[in-house]
Design brief:
This protein has ten helices and 14 strands. It has helices at about 15-25, 60-70, 80-85, 90-110, 145-160, 195-200, 230-245, 260-275, 295-300, 310-340; strands at about 5-10, 30-35, 50, 70-75, 115-120, 165-170, 175, 210, 225, 225-230, 250-255, 260, 280, 290. Helix 2 packs parallel to helix 4 (about 90-110) and helix 4 (about 90-110) packs parallel to helix 5. Bound molecules: uridine-5'-diphosphate (UDP). The site of uridine-5'-diphosphate has 15 residues, from helix 6 and strand 8. Uridine-5'-diphosphate (UDP) binds near residues 192, 211 and 222.
Amino acid sequence: MSVNKNILVTGGAGYIGSHACKALSKAGYHPITYDNLINGHDWAVRWGPLERGDILDRSRIDDVITKYQPSAIMHFAAFAYVGESVTDPGKYYRNNVVGSLNLLEAARDNSVSSFVFSSTCATYGVPDALPITEDTPQRPINPYGASKLMVERMLSDFGAAHGMRSIILRYFNAAGADPDTEIGETHEPETHLIPLVLDAATGRRSQVTVFGSDYNTPDGTCIRDYIHVSDLAEAHVRAIELLGTGAASRVFNIGTGRGYSVKEVIDTVSRISGKTVPVELGSRRTGDPAALVAEASRAQDELNWEARMPGLDQIVSTAWAWHQRGIAGIYSDRQKMLSGLRWTE
Ligand code: UDP
């Protein structure tokens, strides 16, 4: 009997989603990207078909599910700018919550009962203690984190009512790029630390502003747990495999368990690029906790997953290689690929 390897990947044209498609393809699955291309890039869809569509469009989701009959859904499609979620919460609740509800109902009605959801450490808010375990209370402090937490709750309720099995992955700070430099981080606008520091190193931006240097941390700057995006992608493959064994729903933190400060990130970029990074010390950014570090052992024990590139050096080197490659290289690759390849559907 042939096993159904089709996986519907919403947001598969985005930063993390595209790395997940690559990892799925390497592991023998067939990722089908469902993406409205508002923040995603068609050039990032290289490991399976692109079905352009919005998660708010229920009939389009139904059509795509009917066409491919996926065995599971991996759901990345979301708006993810924390600051924007504060100024325009409706946009976040509509897309991230209502859109996810559409998708869940479509999955239920089409008998797709396995679901992998990209959640976030932003659902924890400001933790009372570190490291953050999966049982740390979830008290999001912005609409983005709240929208993700609502989907977690819906998944649990759909599990109880309809037998939907889900794996929820709560990411810490996704960073770095595909070591083959086929894909990488390209946000517009860019708000994430590492690409901004790389821009400052290369003169694409005049400087990087450190958001607060008076935190109660060893060097005064914020500490985050940076997880390589390819490691993060691999965790999704493990999640699909675990669901494939018939396992019950589960939640996992995906981080390394090791934190780095903003200053350490800047120093690492400077060392790896060989360039001076112009830095301005600025004020704190609203809503930034001083330190967020994962307790990542549950994923190691139960998901059989471990970060293979846990160090900041590997994260920054791959991000730097991607940054140097530039957009022109990506387009030329895409043209070559389109002229030489046909998708297997
Ligand atoms: N950060 C900074 N300057 C910037 C962007 C980010 O100092 O221009 C800091 C931010 O305060 C946080 C860390 O870098 O402590 C990572 O921020 P990012 O926006 O990349 O991810 P977040 O932790 O908000 O998900």
